[in-house]
Amino acid sequence: MLTIIIAEAELECVPPALMRHPSVAAKGGKRTVLLDSSFHHRAMQSLPDAYRRGRPDIVHLCLLNALESPRNKEGGLRVFVHTRNDEVIRIDPTWRVPKAYHRFVGLMEQLFAERVIRVGGTVLLSLEKKRLADLVREEAGTAPVQVMHAEGAPYRHQEDAVVVIGGFPHGDFSIPLPYPRYSIYKDELVAWSVLNHVLYGGT
Ligand SMILES: C[S@@+](CC[C@H](N)C(=O)[O-])C[C@H]1O[C@@H](n2cnc3c(N)ncnc32)[C@H](O)[C@@H]1O
Description:
eight-stranded mixed β-sheet, 203 residues, binds S-adenosylmethionine
């Protein structure tokens, strides 16, 4: 069983201080609005790390690729999303990720508001507070942990590994991850390209 953690993903709600900004308020007075740099670019400028925040699209593309993969359909994959605010999304492998971005955003807003998304008796998504280091330790147990990084040893596929991929567009992990780093290419790649490489056994 392969486990993929999309780590420090730039998935968060608009901070309360920005809710009155015109680019946010335009969303019809909703209480929970997902931060999206495409729409909230001007409102975000006062935020620390503004250059990398507000990127739900990265999570959307990673989850579409992961959950629609043959590996997932065969029951060989677990995927977690860890966010910059140390929240972890647990994902049922049968969840059909909305193809349309606006529907994905709506569902994430519902998840942040209600902490759980159920269909029938099945919990498809749930949200809990958890630090990345704790998530990796708990999910790995005795399995190897591989941190994907442009500057690392050549990637070697391990079927039972926990693989950590940054869910951010720029910069680096904010905490030191005390595990071996593996690279698949000399330059930086987008997260979903790295995820697909790992999913298909490093080919
Ligand atoms: C767009 S990158 C973030 C940019 C970051 N400065 C970096 O070093 O890759 C998102 C994530 O994809 C993974 N990644 C990017 N390029 C990679 C490469 N050449 N080999 C392995 N993983 C890579 C890393 O986990 C990284 O955190």
